[in-house]
Design brief:
Largest sheet: 10 strands, mixed
Helix content: 10-25%
Strand order of the largest sheet: 5-8-11-14-17-20-25-26-22-23
Shape: globular
Radius of gyration: 20 Å
Oligomer: single chain
Length: 269
């Protein structure tokens, strides 16, 4: 892959008229679509973002041009076609779920009526439930359950911004919002309506002293929405936060505990 050419074209958009540049950008999107490359990957225990891939995605839009796109009986007016080869991928796709070309869905994924955007990576055994959204470049691990109405934020610009990452075996409860490049580490459980951003206070209240995190939910954490009191010029008001109320039990079967973990702490999923 000619990464240097991608970088040159990013600095000089007139190069998007060059056939070699167009071919290179198209190759990047094709490799993304097949899961051969990804926007972010874990190396030596640390997530690293391949920003040059995000640049290629953004340059794909002006190259593509808006046109009529057909997917079965549905017609769209867009720049990016939808994925079509679900049978070959062995991915279950329930109408009217849509995944854009340039996103990757691994074998065994299930898409209820939902949306997966370009650049996203959804690993094997993951359920994208009804009206859930996986934003551009988001990275979703193996055996994750994104429950109904979950919003996983996307990111293309600014180019230096990191994507949202949900690691393996996480359960993201109904109507949760995870945005701004937040990292949900493996095995974590987010109760319904939990909001995680880079500025959200994530407070571990499970021990005698509170421990605060920002932008990262630790492994196997069980998290629910909460609030804390903050002083403003007009008075003191409650501000939303996320509360870590305990850890998932390692001895419990993962598929069972994904649904039961919150109930173990007397909290509804």
């Amino acid at each position: 892959m000619d990464i240097e050419l991608i970088e040159k074209a990013w600095q000089d958009r007139s190069l998007l008229q060059d056939k070699k540049v167009v071919e290179t950008v198209m190759e990047v999107i094709d490799l993304l679509d097949r899961g051969m490359i990804r926007v972010a990957e874990k190396k030596d225990g640390t997530w690293q973002v391949n920003q040059w891939i995000k640049k290629a995605i953004m340059m794909y839009f002006p190259i593509s041009g808006t046109r009529e796109i057909h997917s079965g009986d549905m017609t769209f007016w867009d720049k990016i076609p939808t994925k079509q080869n679900y049978e070959t991928l062995q991915v279950r796709c329930v109408p009217p779920a849509v995944a854009r070309y340039g996103s990757f869905l691994a074998q065994g994924c299930i898409m209820m009526p939902s949306f997966v955007n370009i650049g996203a990576y959804v690993d094997s055994g993951t359920m994208v439930d009804t009206w859930a959204t996986v934003g551009s470049c988001a990275q979703i691990g193996k055996n994750v359950h994104l429950a109904g109405g979950v919003g996983i934020g996307g990111v293309l610009e600014p180019v230096g911004a990191n994507p949202v990452i949900i690691e393996d075996n996480c359960f993201i409860g109904s109507r949760c919002i995870v945005v701004e490049g937040a990292l949900i580490k493996q095995g974590a459980v987010l109760g319904a309506n939990t909001v995680i951003t880079q500025s959200t206070k994530i407070i571990d209240v499970s021990q005698s002293e509170a421990v605060e995190y920002r932008g990262v939910v630790p492994e196997n954490s069980v998290v629910i929405p909460g609030s804390y009191t903050k002083a403003f010029p007009a008075g003191s008001y409650n501000v939303n936060c996320a509360l870590i109320i305990g850890k998932r039990k390692e001895s419990t079967d993962k598929k069972t505990s994904l649904n039961d973990a919150l109930r173990d702490f007397g909290v509804a999923v």
